[in-house]
Amino acid sequence: MTDYHVAIFGGGSVGLCLAASFATAGARVSLLVRKGAMRDLEDGPVTVLGALGDHAIAPGTIAIVDAANPDDDVLSCDMLILTTKAYDVQAALEPFAGRARSLSVLLMQNGIGTAEIARSVLGPTVPVYSTAMMIGMVRVAPNAAEISGYVGPVQCGPMLGDDIGPLTKLLDVAAQGFVPMTYDPAIRETISFKLLLNSCMNPTGALTGQTYGELLENPASRALIVGLADETLAAFARAFDYRPAQSGQHYVDEILSAIVSKGGGKHRSSMLQDLQSGRKTEIAFLNGFITGLAQDHGLSAVRHDVVRQLIMARET
């Protein structure tokens, strides 16, 4: 057991998997959840099954904390890992503003923009790190999650130029757990690459109900994904001078297909899970971001705007 203390905000699939992994690594783990969810997590083991092995963490190993009232122990943690949706980042961090001691924050959201939100809430002295994750995780019970697909480690790095010292300490501990995590010096490009995937696959999967494998096998959904990728690549090239594929067709045929076949064919969109659970989606941070980026640089992103509106209609 190490004295390294990780506080994980959010009891969804990602929060459960990371809490179990860091507990396996011997870290001291606090899991911050809604008050109504505390009893289920306190009374039974936290269980993770699937592509990275089967793990059960005994009750009492992970401290279960009311997310609305973080105690002094949580406020003095070594790293706060935020697994909330992107639109909840500001509200989740506000209780920590000006109260936390020696805090560092690792953000686990989809899309681009949450690092800037965290910096605005916590100020310039709190190191903020971002991630890109291509691991399928689904919560199957209040205290259980399944890892449905694994492509590679969680990529971590400072989007805003913060010193990597606190992140290095976290990654040293994470290496003893079962969820692989690694430092990525090019995290901005990696997150943009992940945004390309998410903006193509998440909304189409949410609207059709198809798995990622089925999306690429179906000619109609595959054609839509090619068009979405074309718009994203054009926006990235104009705004960031970054173009990870020659065209949407090249991206889908040579890059996306290889990623999905590696371990994501059976994965279903997290946005679909949000809609089925009656939750708000991260569409504004995905296709909404691409639409705005394209418009800011005199480009069209009509496909992204259409799927954004369709998802918003489903939310309503």
Shape: globular
Average pLDDT reading: 94
The number of E-state strands comes to 12
For the termini, the CA-CA separation is 47 Å
Lateral arrangement of strands in the main beta sheet: 5-2-1-6-7-8-11-12
Our Rg estimate from Cα atoms comes to 19 Å
Number of helices: 13
The oligomeric state is: single chain
**Helicity range:** 40-55%
The chain-level structural class is alpha/beta
Poorly predicted parts: none
State which percent range the strand residues make up: 15-25%
Main beta sheet, described? 8 strands, mixed
Order of helices and strands: EHEHEEEHEHEHEEEEHEHHHHHHH
Describe this structure in words.
The protein is α/β, with parallel strands linked by helices and 316 residues long. The chain contains 13 helices and twelve strands. The strands form two sheets. It has an eight-stranded mixed sheet. Helix 7 packs across helix 11 (270-276) and helix 12 packs antiparallel against helix 13. The protein is globular. The mean pLDDT is 94.
